[in-house]
């Protein structure tokens, strides 16, 4: 009973220590590495541990088949973990990079997204007269009344129907969305059934090449241009808002995008909106709106990636345990000899741990390189808050690679600890009799 309780307590403490290690910032990891290096160089036990580790590492080529189990297993964990987290980071970065702090998005009061917002046509002139609204060179307010229609297009991957956002913008639409630039073809002409498509949408959905004809809303639309914005708008199709409204029989708008006179202008605009009893509309910056959309899905992806990585890590730990137990058994006579000539238990434990951590480090680097080579800037799409696809790219950042490396070293720590303790506790007389 005591043995079981002790094993349970040891496991719990090990899990807690592993979690603390993974959460440790780089400064903490550097401090641990410096302390360990100083101990290895300056103390007698440390120098003995370093000498014993050199012997074990020198024999790795003779055990390369078994050692590769640790490297491959940990590489798989790190690769999957980094890829999953890179997906969440890419989605979050795409939406967080959409909009700015001087552009306002106006929705109906209480609406969480454009799809459930309604703004009547008689509200638009009232909004355009509010203080803080920027004006163009012609003196007209920079405000774009917009519609968002979800349409079905076949995916580039397998041809299945996917939801794509078909946005109608007003006359000032290009001015209030300054990040959107035509990179091929030309802008659509108001009053005609012409569309321009985002580069992201063009790469993910079929039929969006320049000059193609699309059947949308029982009407024929011609693709006349391609635009780039580097944000979530690249997932969309754009056209004239009045043409879109007549095609889908939409009598009201869904949102207003308003260019304000800087951040101070936005504050004045928002305050004036709140004070006007005729307008029951919500206002926030476009940056805040899209960042809010990214939060929930990015969190889900991060949690899912961590859970999958943890499950795979358990398998990698068992692989490391089996490999290192076998290595300790194979080197029983060698370890016993070292202990007989003066190597204490601590140097033996540290030597076996250093060997395992080296293999884990190799696995972590391999997994990170594979994740970076395969997934960095890999473009995919997923369903966003408006029930339409958002095209984004995986982002394998240095922070994610560093996190994956810490996971690898944590797995090596757990996988090598118990075999190392067994090596230190192995009776010398018994070990010397083993072949």
3D shape: elongated
> Sheet bearing the most strands, described?
10 strands, mixed
Q: What percentage of amino acids are in beta strands?
A: 15-25%
Quick check: average pLDDT?
Answer: 84
Based on the model shown, name its key terms.
single chain, 435 residues, alpha+beta, 2 domains, two-stranded antiparallel sheet, 12 strands
What does this structure look like?
The chain has 435 residues and is of the alpha+beta class. The protein has two domains: 22-96 and 294-433, no CATH class; 110-279, no CATH class. Helices cover 56% and strands 17% of the residues. The protein is built from 14 helices and twelve strands. It has helices spanning 2-23, 26-42, 44-58, 64-96, 123-128, 173-176, 199-204, 241-247, 262-275, 286-330, 332-340, 345-375, 398-425, 428-433, and strands at residues 103-108, 143-154, 161-169, 181-185, 194-198, 213-216, 219-228, 237-240, 255-259, 281-285, 379-383, 389-393. Strands 1, 2, 3, 4, 5, 6, 7, 8, 9 and 10 form a ten-stranded mixed sheet that branches. Strands 11-12 form a two-stranded antiparallel sheet. Strand 6 (213-216) and strand 7 form a beta hairpin. Helix 3 packs across helix 12, helix 4 runs antiparallel to helix 10 (286-330) and helix 12 (345-375) packs antiparallel against helix 13. The radius of gyration is 30 Å and the shape is elongated. The mean pLDDT is 84.
């Amino acid at each position: 009973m005591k043995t079981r309780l002790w094993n349970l307590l040891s496991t719990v403490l090990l899990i807690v220590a592993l979690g603390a290690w993974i959460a440790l910032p780089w400064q903490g990891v550097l401090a641990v590495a410096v302390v360990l290096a100083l101990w290895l160089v300056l103390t007698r036990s440390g120098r003995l541990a370093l000498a014993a580790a050199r012997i074990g590492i020198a024999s790795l080529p003779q055990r390369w088949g078994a050692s590769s189990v640790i490297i491959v297993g940990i590489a798989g964990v790190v690769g999957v973990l980094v890829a999953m987290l890179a997906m969440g980071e890419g989605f979050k970065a795409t939406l967080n990079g959409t909009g700015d702090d001087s552009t306002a998005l106006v929705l109906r009061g209480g609406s969480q997204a454009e799809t459930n917002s309604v703004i009547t046509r008689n509200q638009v002139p009232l909004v355009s007269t509010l203080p803080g609204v920027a004006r163009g060179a012609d003196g007209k307010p920079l405000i774009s009344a917009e519609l968002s229609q979800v349409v079905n297009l076949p995916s580039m991957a397998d041809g299945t129907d996917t939801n794509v956002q078909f946005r109608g913008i007003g006359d000032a639409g290009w001015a209030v969305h300054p990040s959107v630039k035509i990179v091929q073809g030309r802008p659509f002409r108001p009053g005609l059934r012409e569309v321009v498509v985002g580069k992201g949408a063009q790469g993910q959905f079929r039929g969006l090449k320049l000059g193609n004809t699309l059947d949308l809303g029982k009407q024929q639309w011609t693709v006349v241009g391609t635009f780039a914005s580097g944000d979530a708008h690249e997932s969309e199709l754009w056209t004239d808002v009045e043409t879109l409204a007549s095609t889908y029989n939409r009598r009201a708008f869904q949102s207003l995008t308003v260019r304000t006179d800087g951040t101070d202008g936005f504050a004045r605009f928002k305050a004036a909106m709140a004070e006007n009893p005729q307008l029951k509309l919500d206002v926030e910056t476009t940056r805040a709106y899209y960042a809010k959309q990214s939060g929930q899905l990015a969190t889900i992806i991060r949690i899912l990636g961590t859970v999958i990585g943890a499950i795979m890590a358990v398998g990698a730990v068992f692989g490391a345990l089996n490999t290192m137990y076998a290595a300790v058994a194979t080197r029983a006579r060698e370890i016993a000899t070292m202990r007989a000539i003066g190597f204490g238990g601590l140097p033996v434990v540290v030597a076996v741990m250093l060997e395992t951590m080296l293999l884990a480090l190799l696995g972590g680097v391999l997994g990170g390189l594979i994740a970076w080579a395969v997934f960095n800037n890999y473009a995919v799409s997923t369903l966003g808050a408006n029930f339409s696809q958002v095209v984004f790219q995986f982002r394998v950042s240095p922070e994610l690679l560093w996190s994956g490396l810490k996971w690898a070293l944590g797995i090596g720590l757990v996988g090598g600890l118990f075999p190392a303790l067994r090596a230190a506790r192995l009776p010398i007389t018994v070990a010397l009799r083993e072949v």
